[in-house]
Amino acid sequence: MSQDSPRILIVADDLTGGNACGALFAEAGLSTMTITGTGGGGSSSGTGLPDSGDGAARIAGALDDYDTVVVNANSRHMQPGDAAALTDALLRSAGPVDLVACRIDTTLRGNVGPTAEAALRARQDLASTTGSGRVMGLCIPAFPSSGRVTVGGRQLLNGKLLEDTELRNDVRSPMRTSVVADILRENTKLRCHTVELSTVLAGAEAIRADVLKALAAGTEVIVADALTNDHIDLIAHAVADLSQEENLEWVAIDPGPGSLALARALLPKREPGVILGVSGSATEVTRAQLAKLDEDPTITVLQAALDADNLPDVQATVERVRMAASARATTRASASAQTEPVRAIIVATVVDASDLLELTDEQSELIPRRLAQITAEVLATATLTGLYTTGGDVTAAVLGELGALGMEIHTEIVPLAVGGSIVGGSAAGVPIVTKGGLIGDAGTGVLCLDHLMQTAGMGRA
């Protein structure tokens, strides 16, 4: 799985479930979006199958911009053959992906088996043409936080077997069994093996040995018991560890927690990134905020290098940022010195009053453009976990230079300081905080950076 920008495709059986699954990935720090239509221009066949290139282009384009793309296939109540055909078409049109997940209902209603089998066959066909390894399904249907657990290969809802709940009277998908493997085998030829709870409780080596036996027996889908999220993580890491050794590709089949655990297990550890701040404001308020930020040894505030025209020198400033990003901050804890990576770098045209210059109108107009170019250059060569912009002109110039459509608004940190994420362009999905130059007090910059650090999982302990 690619390190910097994974391509994770989740095909969901309905919209609300798909959105809930996507939310798990977003909360884990993966940029995520959902696509609510599968056919672009609609379907003349009545099955929901894409009948133009629009749907494929939408999915492939979204995978270029986001770590995780959730496609709502709305296949839960289709005829089994139609659900399988739609899943197959979506996967084949998506282009290269690192991980495929079939998002299924937490109570296993609908076309669980046909969609899983279609996903496996589509990935197997691709593997046969590329010479890659064996494709396996991993079904961990437990969703502990929602009262769904799996014991003895059976799915329980709040401690009851599915067929002993009101779901037995479901009009469209009456539940006659809670045996996960039987549900997967309905209308399919899937060969399944269940890793029992006793094996999970015995640990990773026991899971590994059980899965290896199942592989030797020709199993296509591993079903696993789980009572807790820790069990889910343990199973995911155990099978992920087998991937290179046995040359395996896994397709996740579950409501969300299993897919996320598998993605985390397969993702290589990312190099720590930094938050980049860009300030083009010369106000006293902004200078006070920069001074307060500079008190934190893990935040570097540096003045943009200037050229002969007193404008930000793009290449010279980018080099300053690169050097700052590779440095380590020294902090004092008790009697010993400790170092930790720089977490944020703020590029400012004015750091203190001595930096104030008399500027022409033309220079004032060019400064935001130069800062935007600096931002784009840094983004092209460094891992950024967030972006902080001060000044409306600077924010507009930065978003324009990055080719962004705009930003998705998530929260107001303080009045007129907004947190969200970039939509579209080369920085799609990157968390961003924007603030006017006259907004807030000396501590507002700290609040803005803290928000970005928490979003990126870099918050203070």
From TrEMBL:
Identify the keywords attached in UniProt to this record, alphabetized: ATP-binding, Carbohydrate metabolism, Kinase, Nucleotide-binding, Transferase
Stretches assigned to the Four-carbon acid sugar kinase N-terminal domain: 8-254
- Top-level taxon of origin: Bacteria
Q: Name one GO molecular function term.
A: ATP binding
Query: What InterPro entries has UniProt attached to this entry?
Result: 4-carb_acid_sugar_kinase_N, 4-carb_acid_sugar_kinase_N_sf, NBD_C, NBD_C_sf
- Which Pfam family would be a valid example here? SBD_N
Report domain Four-carbon acid sugar kinase nucleotide binding positions.
276-442
The family classification in the record reads: Belongs to the four-carbon acid sugar kinase family.
What name does UniProt use for this protein?
A: Uncharacterized conserved protein YgbK, DUF1537 family
> What is the species listed in this Swiss-Prot or TrEMBL entry?
Brevibacterium sandarakinum
